[in-house]
Amino acid sequence: MIIINADDWGLSVEATESAAFLLQDGRITSVSAMVYMKDSERAAKLAGPLGADVGLHLNLCESFTGANVPDRLSRDHEALVEFLNRGKYAQLVYNPRLRSAFARVCEAQFAEFRRLYRSEPTHVDGHRHLHLCVNMLINPVIPRGTRVGRSFTFDRGEKGLLNRAYRSLVDRRLHSRYTLADHFFSLEQCLAGKGRPLTRVAD
Fold first, then answer.
1. What is the pLDDT of residues 161-179, one digit of tens each?
2. Residue range 20-45: average pLDDT?
3. DSSP structural state of residue 126
4. DSSP-assigned letter for residue 182
5. What are the pLDDT digits (tens) for 77-89?
6. Contact, 14 vs 39, CB < 8 A?
């Protein structure tokens, strides 16, 4: 089975409307929703009539834009945003001082998802794939057994040996706790000819 998922559901009106069109047209099979964002409330109301499978798109790196974000959550979240946006490799650094903030921010987003959708997310992934940052891998807060987005799949030669070895290590860590798809590809990269051709995605 091939799952075609659109991220950023609820991020903005534009992002939600684009994904809604693709759902109605049968071009995608699921969406990943952001909470505490500008269009989160409206997006949740749209999901039911569309019959969408909705996962949680954990946001650890972009400021919340929704209304009524609790002050403590906002402070914790902004600390993560500042840390993870310091540079390209910030996600590879473990920050013990933010351990509790990561847990509180993730738990709050799960709770808000349940409030909006009255259900558990069908899957969990992360904005900019930062659910795979080192803090999240060392101190996992996503419930065991959840369907979680894995690292991108690359063929030999597409990425360097060290890069592929690290991704393999991350996937082994995830596999010990969560349910993973067999492979994970970026449709954008495939269409741009920068990754595995679409004819090989179904292999």
1. 898 899 999 999 999 999 9
2. 97
3. E
4. S
5. 999 999 999 998 9
6. no
Question: 């609790």: which residue's tokens?
Answer: 70
Token pair recorded at residue 145: 């057994």
pLDDT digits (tens, 9 = 90+) for 35-73: 999 999 999 999 999 998 999 999 999 999 999 999 999
- Could you say which DSSP state residue 54 is in? E
* CA separation for the pair 6, 194 (Å, rounded): 19
7 close to 33: Cβ distance less than 8 angstroms: no
The 3-state secondary structure of 95-125 reads CHHHHHHHHHHHHHHHHHHHHHHCCCCCCEE
What does DSSP assign to residue 73? H
What is residue 2's predicted lDDT score, i.e. its pLDDT? 87
Residues 42-55: b if buried by 16+ CB within 10 A, e if exposed: ebbebbeeeebbbb
Q: CB of 91 within 8 A of CB of 130?
A: yes
Q: Dihedral sign for Cα 84, 112, 67, 149, please.
A: positive
Query: In a 10 Å sphere around its CB, with 0-12 CB exposed, 13-18 middle and 19+ buried, how is residue 65 labelled?
Result: middle
Please give the Cα distance from 35 to 9 (Å, whole number).
9
136-164: per-residue pLDDT in tens? 999 999 999 999 999 998 877 778 889 88
Report the run of H or E that residue 86 belongs to, with start and end: none
Q: Quick check: 166 and 202 in contact, CB under 8 A?
A: no
